[in-house]
Amino acid sequence: MLKSRQGKRSALSNREHAQSMRLRVAIAGICAASAMHASRSVAADAAAPASSDDTLSEVIVTGSRISGLKAADSPAPIQLFSADALQKAAGSPDLQSALAALVPSLTLQAFGFDMAGQTLQTRIRGLSPNHVLVLVNGKRRHTTANLAVDTGSPYQGGAGADLNFIPLDAIDHIEVLTDGAAAQYGSDAIAGVINIILKKNNSGGNLNGMYGSYYDTGGKTNDVSGNAGFGPTDTSYLSITGEIRNHAHSFSGAIDERAINPAVIGTFPDSNIVDAPNYPYVNRISGDAESHLKSFLLNTGFDFEGGTELYAFVTYGDKNAKSFENTRFPHVSVYTPANGVPVYQYPFGFNPLESAEEQDSQEVLGIKGAFSEWNWDLSSSYGEDKVHIYTLDSTNPSLYSSTGTSPTDFADGSLRATQWTSNLDINKNFEVGLAGPLNVAFGGEYRLESYDITAGQPASYVNGGAQSYPGFSPTDAGSHSRSNEAGYVDLAVKPLPGWQVDLAGRYEHYSDFGNATVGKLTTRYDFTSEFALRGTISNGFRAPTLAEEYYSSTNVGPTSAFVQLPPNSAGAKQLGLNGLQPEHSVNLSLGMVWRPVPGMSMTLDAYQIQLTNRIWGSGSLYGTNNGVPVSAAVNAAIVTNGNQLDPAVVATGTTGIQIFSNGIDTMTRGVDLVWDYPQTYDFGKIDYSVGATYNKTTVTKLPNGLAAVPDQPLYDQEAVSDLTTANPLYTINLGLLWTFEKLSVNLVEKIYGPTSEYQGSVHTLGNVLTYYKTEIGATPITNLDISYQIMEKLSFSIGATNLFNQYPDKINAEQLAGWSNFQYGGNASSQKYPIWSPFGINGGFYYVKASFKW
């Protein structure tokens, strides 16, 4: 009989968790002191003239090392968003959704298969999530351990910072630099920089509650969060924030054709699939993961005499999440023994769950001050993300067939990523007889990174492993690390009145890739107080993440098994791939700042980003197809990597590999527009705004296929379309914020331009695929938030994201028909909407909120 066994955390992981908690408590204890102004929510825009709140309009190191620089005077395009704007931006109370609603050039992954659905990624200007650098208070944020490996997604390979571990209530404002900045901040700042500035309130606070749900797909969400500021001394601040958020599964899929196909249910008379829960919608994979998140943030500082400040901040998050995988029908859930008599374990089939327990933390400790007009800042930061993975409500059919028993819950192993970063930054102004002083900034950075994969329990991976998500095998497991040393120089000066010039250079040394030198030249000329031109030329360098280099796993469907082959593995070398190499970029931009009338402001920036030797996930390289050998080289690489595939799938199904590789060159060209015009009337104040972006990527070089696999392209039509067309051609935000006494109405019409993707279907012998194009036409999405201040300290809001419940166009009907042709493996036919839809597949989200401030 079957035995149910839930995987437990290892003793080692518990010790690591305890050590991490002790480190957090130690830092908090050393620095528990507080003082500074209470944060204020002020509406702000990238191009707006300096706000009356000077603190909000000042840029904290983003895009320039000049102290006290205003966003409106920046030579680079920077957008500022206040805490109030973030809270009103999106119904879902998470940072990623808020930024996606506010920044036209930023897109949010709305859905992902397997583990990718539990750590959604963001990207800027249509590039990879790995091309965006996230800072918190100007300090580098660590990345997630949960690499997105799902093919058929423009976010594949993404391993950026998980923004949702930072509570919205902890944020004072956010600075978004939409320009390359690798020469200033490091190799991953090719598309832009997101700098999250935390509250430094020494008094007051707020408590927020929210409840919401999609209109007709589920996804019930509740959130409680709060922030409180304390001032232990006159020269210190201690700001503490906590949040608890729960989100239920959603479902927006179609009928699984296998559930109503007489050829399936009629051939197996002892199958009771028609009595299964939710029949015929038995396959629940198309929808959000269920998640439960608890997060905590502490930001503190203490000013000494003479202007020296000791500061620290700590973040900690704990998340449990579960994603539905494809339903297993009785006839595909069990390996058939040699006697040909099938053994049925589940008369209803089963719908496995992929589950994760994740702990994410960062601790930053620093001291800064001034000496003889030299400003200095010394800091050290340690960040860690660890994900324990489980497969639930499943079985290992081969194990059951050979032993008569199998667990139903499996501990699949764990992923762990760490970054330890230390920085020294120094700058000073020199009077050199020009129109403005020469600001000289320089500094250094030392970073240690690690990436670990821990094997799961043997039952999770032997003989093909657990259905839906086999655990990590000992050959997948490993511990990898590297170091990085960097130094930079940044010079900024006004040679003539109205003319600003910034020149930056950076040298980096990676222990695994050697040296790189990059530079950036930025200039701006104000012809009048109403009109200015600005432009940038820079080059960049991005070393592959350790996850891209070493991640290894087996991804399975009911009749398929594909190995994510590490580029640095012996199996990859057999195929002619010798690991990953760095990417290189050249960024060009030219823009204007225009204030035609008092109060109105506009920026328009055109850009070009050329990426060479780009890292991207391959298409599927097949070893067998319908049980027929296709490539002996692919099969040999799987064996060399040590992955054990389900014998039934090898005998009758489809197997192969996917791999990250270099070689594609791309050219991305686009234009960003930001326009703002606040006006005051007798009936209140209205802030009119327009944000728009146009973005197009083309492939300028496509590498040849592998010599060992001559009949299959390394990058097929699907992989290329994920790079080039699966991002909206344009996005337009039309905003109107009306405030009148105690009432505020925030209306945003967000128009997503056309997107498209090719996807292969109808697998035939010889590995011939037919590629079908799915298109999503231009779609307007209406977001509305209405807030009323009931009492002096209490306000109430109702609103909707996607007010009119818009859905994307459906997947190409011919493609769905091709998927349905697989009598026993057509699980993909349960999909209705394309997973790469820029506005999601769940329709409208409606919510109510309450906020109490003191």
Explained architecture:
It contains 13 helices and 36 strands. A hairpin with a 2-residue loop joins strand 13 and strand 14. It is globular. Mean pLDDT is 86; it is low at 1-55, 332-336 and 763-767.
**Overall average residue pLDDT:** 86
Strand content: over 45%
Task: Give the termini separation.
Answer: 60 Å
Rough shape? globular
What percentage of residues falls in helices of 4 or more residues? 10-25%
What's the total count of β strands?
36
What about the largest sheet?
22 strands, antiparallel, barrel
Task: Chart the SSEs and their pairings.
Blueprint: H1 11-31, H2 54-57, E1 78-82, H3 83-89, H4 95-102, E2 106-108, E3 122-124, E4 132-136, E5 139-140, E6 171-177, H5 182-185, E7 192-198, E8 205-214, E9 221-230, E10 236-247, H6 262-265, E11 290-303, E12 309-324, E13 353-371, E14 374-392, H7 397-403, E15 410-430, E16 438-455, E17 478-496, E18 499-510, E19 514-526, E20 531-542, H8 546-550, E21 553-557, E22 560-564, H9 570-574, E23 583-594, E24 601-617, E25 621-625, E26 628-629, H10 632-641, H11 647-652, E27 654-658, E28 660-681, E29 684-701, H12 717-724, E30 730-740, E31 743-752, E32 755-764, E33 768-776, E34 779-789, E35 794-801, H13 813-820, E36 845-853
Parallel strand pairs: 4-7, 22-27
Antiparallel strand pairs: 1-6, 2-3, 4-5, 6-7, 8-9, 8-36, 9-10, 10-11, 11-12, 12-13, 13-14, 14-15, 15-16, 16-17, 17-18, 18-19, 19-20, 20-23, 21-22, 23-24, 24-28, 25-26, 25-27, 28-29, 29-30, 30-31, 31-34, 32-33, 34-35, 35-36
